[in-house]
């Protein structure tokens, strides 16, 4: 245990764009998918862990080349937020595919945290990312299905 400035930065840069939803919520109809309660708990646990764990666990052996995949995933994530904001803020844009990835706005944060775990030599961040993936990706897929994107793309 111990403070990690790099871990704090990773948590902030990945989770901060979600605050955009407070100022720029989706326009139009908001579809809420039914989510099994345990899956919702796992998603919330993963989000909390990915916010806290990187900042409160010290890095191990830093492997600098892992910054590159983390940066690419983060840039992709920011681009997806840009797509949402510039293309009309439709809820479907939060769950729309990118290339062949069905819910990239759920997948890219997981990739950033897994890359950060490798970069910072910190298995606790990897564990937090796995918990996030176990909850966030299935919830996003359920919402995507409820919106009806699976059939239209």
TrEMBL record:
The chain crosses the membrane at residues 62-80, 92-118, 124-143. It comes from the Bacteria. The keyword Transmembrane helix applies. Keywords: Membrane, Transmembrane, Transmembrane helix. This is Uncharacterized protein. It comes from Microbacterium croceum. The lineage of its organism: Bacteria, Bacillati, Actinomycetota, Actinomycetes, Micrococcales.
């Amino acid at each position: 245990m111990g403070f990690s400035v790099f871990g704090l930065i990773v948590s902030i840069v990945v989770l901060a764009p979600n605050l955009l939803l407070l100022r720029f919520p989706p326009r139009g109809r908001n579809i809420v998918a039914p989510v099994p309660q345990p899956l919702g708990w796992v998603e919330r646990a993963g989000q909390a862990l990915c916010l806290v764990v990187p900042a409160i666990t010290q890095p191990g052996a830093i492997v600098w080349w892992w910054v590159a995949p983390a940066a690419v995933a983060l840039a992709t994530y920011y681009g997806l937020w840009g797509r949402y904001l510039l293309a009309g803020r439709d809820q479907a844009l939060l769950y729309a595919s990118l290339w062949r990835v069905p819910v990239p706005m759920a997948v890219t944060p997981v990739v950033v945290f897994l890359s950060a775990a490798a970069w910072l030599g910190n298995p606790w961040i990897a564990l937090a990312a796995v918990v996030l993936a176990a909850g966030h990706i299935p919830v996003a897929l359920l919402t995507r299905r409820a919106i009806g994107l699976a059939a239209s793309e």
